[in-house]
Amino acid sequence: MVVPGTVAGLIPWWLTGWEARSPAVWLPVRMIGIVLIAAGASVLLAAFLRFVLEGVGTPAPVAPTQRLVVGGLYRYVRNPMYLAVMATIVGQALLLGRLLLLAYAACFAVAVSAFVRWYEEPTLRRRFGDEYEEYRRSVPGWWPRRRQSA
Fold first, then answer.
1. Contact status, residue 45 vs residue 33, Cβ threshold 8 Å
2. Do residues 85 and 4 make contact, with C-beta atoms less than 8 angstroms apart?
3. pTM of the model as a whole
4. How far apart are CA 51 and CA 71, in angstroms?
5. Is the CB of residue 123 less than 8 Å from the CB of residue 38?
6. Which end of the chain, N or C, is less surrounded by CB atoms within 10 Å?
7. 17 — phi, psi (to 5°)?
8. Is the dihedral of CA 3, 54, 136, 74 positive or negative?
């Protein structure tokens, strides 16, 4: 929880003080921001719980899971935690009317995409072999599908 809390909480606070740039932010936009923040936090908690219960470990490289996590939200998309952090940052941008947070969200997206491509996927491939390759082929990385895998 430390890394997502820092990325989706501490850094946005440091950038904005969580102060709205303009009180004139359109109410429906602010409401969408609140929904994104709540959804992001809920997904993060569910994913962490899934790592502990199903994977018998954590998302942190220092205490990785013993088993590949493929249940829960991971049946629909391979990277729900990163998407949840992104939703939380974008939600804060909408709630506060802060374009700076949208720029930060874009930087986060680029950084996490690179991390997944060049570190996480090769590491999972080495650790879980064919099981990961089958999972990778059947579940999209970034755009959730509507139905779970069979």
1. no
2. yes
3. 0.90
4. 9
5. no
6. C
7. 65, 15
8. negative
Q: Tell me the domain boundaries of the chain.
A: 2-138
Give backbone dihedrals phi and psi of 93, rounded to 5 degrees, phi first: -60, -45
Structure tokens at 116: 């997944």
DSSP sequence for the chain:
-HHHHIIIIIHHHHHHTT--S-TTS-HHHHHHHHHHHHHHHHHHHHHHHHHHHTTSS-SSTTS--SS---SGGGGT-S-HHHHHHHHHHHHHHHHHT-HHHHHHHHHHHHHHHHHIIIIIHHHHHHHHHHHHHHHHHHS-SSS--SS---
CA 147, chain centre distance (Å): 19
For tokens 């802060």, what's the residue? 98
Model confidence over 42-90: pLDDT tens digits?
A: 999 999 999 999 999 888 888 889 999 999 999 999 999 999 999 999 9
